[in-house]
């Protein structure tokens, strides 16, 4: 039975149907190197901004933060809904090799292609996450800005090659960001999701890194067996991608341990629970970096505050 290479979408928007992938590739080939300038400006802004804010009061920006996270959550949910069906369809009817080596998700599927293009472009405005951290004078850890700039550079570079394995990376990122930005939006709106949700998000991010490494290993194997003409991914791209995903895994695993499993983290959790039961604590939730800033009426030591500030402040791109 001959199965169509694209899934049977129940509805296709006009802007999706009008997507012409060749035009976007030509634009990206001509302009992708500008990403290095964008990253340079980004670094200057965030570290210059930290210096500027050093002796100034923090901005609250809770309303803007709620709008920002809500928009990114809706975008990510829509992107996941429009790209995941293509990956599932290809796996069911064409198998793992096609999903890793054939870029039909851009070349033959206008719906998935359009949302792939938006995904790549979205990595630039997502740098705005860090601006909120700087203006709100929250801790800016290495993983946060390193993750932002490397995802931006890799995404733009990969689009010039129509890297076939990117369909996996895009679907995973959309899905994780759907949960993550929704969580941040709720916290910006003063809702208090349980700590287990934050742990779930970091677990999903770690899983994303493991799968990313596995896809690159499979891609390398397919290149060796099927040849470069049959698998649309370059050796250079595989090396860059696996180095990026492995570094993310190490950094996220370290963050997970320090935030949820270390002795200080467990002490902080017990102290929070004890203070809450005595009615002496009021924990306010911030967003973007997802730091917890506790305002306690009882005697809570500085280790508790430090542990609370480190909780859930990392995002995966």
Describe the structure.
It is a single chain. The protein has 317 residues and is mainly α. Helix content is 71%, strand content 3%. It contains 14 helices and two strands, in the order H-H-H-H-H-H-H-H-H-H-H-H-H-E-E-H. The protein has helices at residues 14-17, 21-31, 34-53, 62-93, 96-101, 104-107, 110-122, 128-135, 142-161, 166-188, 195-226, 235-261, 263-277, 302-310; strands spanning 281-285, 292-296. It has a two-stranded antiparallel ribbon. Helix 2 crosses helix 9, helix 9 (142-161) runs antiparallel to helix 12 (235-261) and helix 10 (166-188) packs antiparallel against helix 11. It starts with 13 loop residues before the first helix and ends in a 7-residue tail after the last helix. Its main location: membrane. This is Elongation of very long chain fatty acids protein. Its EC number is 2.3.1.199.
């Amino acid at each position: 039975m001959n199965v169509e290479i694209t899934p049977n979408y129940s509805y296709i928007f006009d802007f999706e149907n009008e997507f012409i992938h060749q035009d976007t590739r030509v634009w990206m080939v001509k302009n992708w190197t500008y990403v290095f300038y964008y990253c340079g400006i980004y670094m200057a802004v965030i570290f210059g901004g930290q210096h500027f804010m050093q002796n100034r009061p923090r901005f609250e920006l809770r309303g803007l933060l709620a709008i920002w996270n809500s928009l990114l959550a809706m975008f990510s949910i829509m992107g996941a809904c429009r790209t995941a069906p293509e990956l599932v369809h290809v796996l069911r009817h064409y198998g793992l090799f096609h999903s890793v080596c054939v870029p039909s998700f851009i070349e033959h599927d206008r719906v998935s292609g359009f949302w792939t293009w938006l995904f790549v472009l979205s990595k630039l405005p997502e740098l705005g996450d860090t601006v909120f951290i700087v203006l709100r004078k929250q801790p800016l850890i290495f993983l946060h800005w390193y993750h932002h700039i490397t995802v931006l550079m890799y995404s733009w570079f990969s689009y010039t090659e129509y890297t076939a394995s990117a369909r996996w990376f895009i679907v995973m990122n959309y899905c994780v960001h759907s949960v993550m930005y929704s969580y941040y939006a709720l916290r910006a709106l003063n809702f208090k999701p349980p700590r287990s949700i934050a742990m779930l998000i970091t677990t999903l991010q770690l899983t994303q890194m493991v799968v990313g490494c596995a896809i690159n290993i499979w891609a390398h194997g397919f290149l060796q067996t099927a040849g470069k003409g049959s698998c649309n991914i370059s050796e250079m791209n595989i090396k860059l991608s696996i180095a990026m995903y492995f570094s993310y895994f190490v950094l996220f695993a370290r963050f997970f341990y320090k935030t949820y499993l270390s002795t200080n983290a467990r002490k902080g959790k017990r102290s929070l629970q004890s203070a809450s039961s005595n009615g002496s604590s009021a924990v306010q939730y911030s967003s973007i970096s997802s730091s917890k800033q506790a305002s306690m009426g009882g005697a809570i030591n500085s280790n508790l505050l430090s542990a609370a500030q480190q909780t859930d402040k990392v995002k995966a791109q």
